[in-house]
Amino acid sequence: MNTLRWGIVSAGRIAHQFCHDMQFVEHGSLQAIAARSLDDAKTFAKQYNIPNVYQGYEALYADPEVDVIYVATPHTFHYQNVADAINAGKHVLCEKPITVSSEQAIALYALAKEKGVFLMEAMWTYYLPAILKAKTWVEQGRIGNIKHIKADFGYPIPYQEDRREWDINLAGGSLLDMGIYPIAIADYFLNKDIKSIYVEATLAPNGADADSLFICNYGEAKATLASSFSCKLQNWAYIIGDEGYIAIPDFWRANECTLYVLDEKVDYYNDQRESLGFCYEAEAVAQYIAQGKLTSDKVTPEQSIKFQQTMERVKAKY
Predict the structure, then answer these.
(1) Which residues are in the GFO/IDH/MocA-like oxidoreductase domain (predicted)?
(2) Residue 254: what are its φ and ψ, rounded to 5°?
(3) Which residues of 134-161 are buried (b: 16+ CB within 10 A; e: fewer)?
(4) Helices 180-190 + 301-315 axis angle, to 10
């Protein structure tokens, strides 16, 4: 199996975390970095020993030594960045949310299929060993039938209307930035359509959502989900069945999970990893591409589109 050569679009925080974890990826290497500032790109390249450095993204897309592009720009740039990379014949892993609308997501997956390249939304949570262990417990029937999921994700971010997280021109607000994680974890364990959604939100002066609480009705199961820029939420996920429940601390980056029956702790798992956890999705991308697949079997195009549609349903109730 060949080693994938990665090109990194953007030198921001999430790109640093991803590149830090490439040391734990068996079939991946860092080949190129592109940023708006050449100095930023050079500094980034020096830190991670990346040979090819570019100012602007087009030269990276055209680099014949790059096999796959990791897009780590703000949400509103994802559509154009991904489309440009695909049109250059590159495989793409794009940070979440992959787009800012379901229409854009549908278009990108159609374009990737047309061009015969791989495309996946970087929902790294789906590849974490602790999440896979929790899913195995569910599939083994150890908590019975899932009746409820609780998940939230929030950290306080001071309000500044021109700050990336708050800027409505950059699709600011806690829902797209953080709420996609609770939505994704509920979909991962339930894999059902949402019948109805109840929403309570607090909006900032510029209209961006500071807090969002939404209760999703899946029929036999319900999910209470939340995101926040106002305060740190617990940031745990609870997968609750009629015979037990699973608690997952910091579920979006989980390294452990615990199984309970009533108040008794009956099983525990910790992955003991040294990495941050991004290595698992990067290695999975290499496996998919080696197998000739154009999409992931865990973060499917249908799921990414569904994430967008769910967020659109939530936002419509603000």
Answers:
(1) 132-246
(2) -50, 135
(3) bbebbeeebbeebeebbbbbbbebeeee
(4) 130
The number of C-alpha atoms within 13 Å of 236 and in the hemisphere containing its C-beta is 12
Q: Is the pTM of this model over 0.85?
A: yes
Is 184 within 8 Å of 191 (Cβ atoms)? no
- Taking only the tens place, the pLDDT of each residue in 147-171 is 999 999 999 999 999 999 999 988 9
**Structure tokens, 44:** 């980034």
- Give yes or no for a contact between 100 and 176, defined as CB atoms under 8 angstroms apart: yes
Q: What CA–CA distances, in Å, run from 114 to 78, 86, 107, 108, 275?
A: 19, 10, 10, 10, 35
Structure tokens given for 287 = 């496996």
In the 3-class helix/strand/coil scheme, how is 112-149 assigned residue by residue?
HHHHCCCEEECCHHHHCHHHHHHHHHHHCCCCCCEEEE
Mind giving me the DSSP string for 24-36? G-TTEEEEEEEES
Looking from the CA of 86 toward its CB, the CA atoms found within 13 Å total 24
Residues comprising the chain, all counted: 318
Q: What domains, with CATH codes, occur in the chain?
A: 4-124+277-292 (3.40.50.720), 129-270 (3.30.360.10)
pLDDT at 2: 84
Cβ atoms of 66 and 60 within 8 Å: the answer is yes
Confidence tier at 1 by pLDDT (50, 70, 90): confident
Indicate which residues carry an active-site annotation. 96
